[in-house]
Each structure stands twice: as C-alpha cells, then as structure tokens.
Amino acid sequence: MTTVVIADDQELVRSGLQLVLEARGCEVVGSAGDGRAAVEVVHRTQPDVVLMDIRMPVMDGIAATRELTRAGVESRVLVLTTYDLDRYVYEALKAGAAGFLLKATPPDRLVAGVETVAAGESLLAPALTRRLIEEHLRRPPPYDGVPDELAALTEREREVLVLMAHAFSNDEIAKELFVAPATVKTHVNRVLAKLGVASRVQAVVLAYESGLVTPGATPRTS
After folding, report:
1. Class of domain 135-210
2. Which helix (H) or strand (E) holds 18?
3. What torsion, rounded to 10 degrees, do the Cα atoms 128, 167, 73, 42 define?
4. Which of 29, 30, 72, 80 is nearest to 56 (CA)?
5. What H or E segment, with its residue span, contains residue 187?
6. Is the pTM of this model over 0.70?
7. Going by C-beta distance under 8 Å and a sequence separation of 6 or more, which residues neighbour residue 80?
8. What stretch of H or E contains 87?
9. Angle at 98 between CA 172 and CA 33, to 5 degrees
10. Domain limits of the chain?
11. How many angstroms from the chain centroid is the CA of residue 60?
12. Sign of the C-alpha dihedral, residues 203, 164, 77, 47?
C-alpha cells in the first residue's frame, strides 16, 4: 500500500484529497497546513509520496521540497498546483520534486500519478517539460565541449542525458542507442548519482542550464 503525506494550507483540500486517496487504496499517514510542518511530518512518517502544495505559510512548498531533498529523504514529492504553467512549478522541479499534478486532476488520475511517482518515475508530460523549461529558463549559449557540471559523465551517459532532456522514456532511449532497457536504467542511475540530483527532472534542468541541451534543438547522439 502506498503511503502519502498531504501538505496544503486549506483544510478542505486536505480532507478531500485524503478521501480520494483512501477510497482507492492509498494510506494517508499524515498531513500539514504549512511547509515547515510538512517537513516535520515527512521526517516522522517517511511516506512513499508527499503531495505538496506550492503556496503555503511559514515555509512554501518549494523551500520544503528543497529541504527534504537536501536531507536525503527518500519520499517522493509530487507538487500540487492550480495552473499547469504556474511560475513556481519550475523552481519546485529544480528543488527536487518528481513531478506535478493539477488540483483539478480527476481522482483516478490523481491516484495513478501518486502510484507512478511512488514507483520511482517522474510525472511530466514531454510537451509540458519543454514548455516549463522554455518558459522559465534563460537560454544559455550553445556549449562547445563538455560543461564543467557534466564533466564526470562518460560520453554514453551524456548521450543518455540528452535523450532524457528531450523526454525520451527508458524504452525509447534503449531503441535509440540500440541497448537493453536494463542498461539504460543503469546509465540513468549513474547520471543521477554523478550529478548529485534526486530525480530525472533535476538532471534535465541541469542539462538545459549547463547548455548541453538548448530548447527546441533536435537530440543528437553519436
């Protein structure tokens, strides 16, 4: 059973989410009305997933996500937002969130999203990934060579990162590079470890910020 903590400053929203989740087999192990309380509840309960609102008092959802990521908490953060291009979403993803859902998401999709994130996947549609990055990121100039931030990666790992940045799934990367999906998973895990990030989304953000990938470019592999 997937365990969840709900962080939202509106009690009615927290109650509604709890009803939806528990009616579909998830266990809500805690809730919080502000970011500071959310961090404390997560440390205490160690849930699989944290449903994290962005706009909260005391500490907002971005700061709370960043604090949990830096602490090495294994709980996966799924950001809740009202608008799909909320200007704070990009910062939340950069802070370590595994993805986001709209508050208006239908109940079955909400639970499916929670289960997806609990399984270790990121929850971002390819088109939305590009829109968020292009909307909130100043385009760095094309980089000639290997950016310093990515110097620890092998050539193959950089190829995998480029394809990740273009929203390729593991299976699609495997087909593109003519390797087994299990090999891709190993490469992805090594990329995350070497870059010191907690999720694919953070790795993709770094790929764009470093100039390895530019918005709108066609992925190139050797």
Report:
1. mainly alpha
2. helix 11-23
3. 30
4. 80
5. helix 181-195
6. no
7. 8, 51, 52, 53, 54, 100, 101, 102, 103
8. none
9. 160
10. 3-123, 135-210
11. 17
12. negative
* Residue 178, token pair as written in the block: 């003519």
CA angle 203, 205, 208 (to 5 degrees): 110
User: How long, in residues, is the chain?
Assistant: 222
Amino acid code (one letter) for 152: A
Topology of domain 3-123, CATH: Rossmann fold (3.40.50)
Assess whether the region 3-123 and the region 135-210 belong to the same CATH fold: no
Structure tokens, 183: 């090999």
**210 token code pair:** 């470093």
State how far the alpha carbon of 212 is from the alpha carbons of 48, 137, 152, in Å: 32, 14, 14
pLDDT (tens place) for every residue of the chain, 222 residues total:
999 999 999 999 999 999 999 999 999 999 999 999 999 999 999 999 999 999 899 999 999 999 999 998 999 999 988 766 556 777 888 888 888 888 888 999 899 989 988 987 777 655 555 565 555 555 544 445 556 678 899 999 999 999 988 878 889 999 999 999 999 999 999 999 999 887 888 888 888 778 787 766 666 555
